[in-house]
Design goal:
The protein is α+β, with helices and mostly antiparallel strands. It has helices at about 125-130, 200-220, 230-245, 250-255, 275-280, 285-290; strands spanning about 1-5, 10-15, 25-30, 35-45, 50-60, 75-90, 95-110, 135-145, 155-165, 170-180.
Length: about 300
């Protein structure tokens, strides 16, 4: 028996029932309070191919599995599962060691947790009100690790996760491929020539910690998204040019006030003979010609 300040008294049980004939043993783990129940029931066995299989059911909900809605404790969750795992070590045609892990899991809703004969995965209206509903799922995971015979050889990893189901509209697949670096062997440390930290003064400790921080940063530099040296120099040069305010060509021309072509006086055109004759002619103003004429006298009325 256990006790919780919110849930009150709780009881943890484990029961193992021996299988009949060649059937595997059945294991049951329960954690129950006055109103809630968490129960895991499973069997495990191995096949001739070396595959380990776990098969069972998981229930979480009201303690009264026959009348979950009456207790008002929310919907229950009940699922049947089958989990298989296989590990195979082999060698490929190139002489590399292969380690292949294959995991398969099947999840199906169990709307009748107390009836092991009923495997219907389509809920009724009453069961939909009592249980969380979902479609059956098939989940597969495969990992393949490949490495050379040498101890310092790198390892290649290929991982693949697949989620599918007969009632799902599509298959979801996630893949990952990576490669480790060669084995790194650290240099041996001479502990005889080491200086204990408790014998160092404050200045020596400060200098030591500064060196450790710099060396640690250099070790992690390939794994961090820091700017490269070329990027840093280019950025610094750009900032320096912006800070010095070097004038542009337009600013230099504007500051010197070089006159434009329209400001330079044009050359005087040489007059032709016709233009000279026209210039010597005496122009008679039209107003003067009209003034010399005798005005007409109108008769008196």
């Amino acid at each position: 028996p256990l006790y919780d300040s919110e849930g009150g008294k709780a009881t943890l049980r484990y029961n193992r029932t021996g299988g009949v004939s060649d059937l595997p043993d059945e294991n049951t783990i329960e954690l129950q309070t006055a109103s809630r129940l968490l129960r895991l029931t499973y069997q495990t066995y191995s096949t001739l191919t070396g595959t380990v299989v776990y098969q069972g059911a998981l229930y979480r909900g009201p303690a009264d599995t026959q009348n979950t809605a009456a207790q008002g404790a929310g919907k229950a969750f009940s699922v049947d599962f089958t989990l298989s795992s296989q590990l195979v070590a082999s060698t490929d045609t190139q002489g590399k060691d292969l380690l292949t892990r294959t995991i398969q899991m099947t999840l199906s809703p169990d709307y009748t947790p107390d009836n092991t004969q009923d495997e219907t995965d389509t809920p009724t209206d009453e069961q939909s009100a009592r249980f969380h509903t979902f479609t059956p799922l098939d989940i597969g995971f495969t990992s393949v690790f490949s490495s050379g015979q040498a101890k310092n050889a790198s390892t290649t990893a290929d991982l693949k996760l697949t989620v599918s189901g007969e009632q799902l509209p599509e298959v979801i697949t996630a893949s990952f491929t990576g490669k480790t670096k060669s084995k790194w062997t650290p240099d041996a440390v001479d502990t005889q020539a080491a200086t204990p930290l408790d014998t160092m003064d404050a200045n020596s400790l400060t200098a030591l910690f500064a060196q450790a921080a710099v060396k640690g940063g250099l070790m992690l530099l390939p794994y961090l998204g820091l700017p490269t040296a070329t990027t840093a120099v280019t950025t610094a040069a750009t900032d320096a040019l912006a800070a010095t305010d070097i004038p542009t060509a337009t600013d230099i021309l504007t500051a010197t006030d070089i006159p434009t072509a329209t400001a330079i006086p044009t050359a005087t055109a040489i007059p032709t003979a016709t233009d000279t004759a026209k210039a010597n002619d005496t122009a008679v103003p039209p107003a003067a010609t009209e003034a010399s004429q005798t005005p007409a006298i109108s008769p008196a009325p």
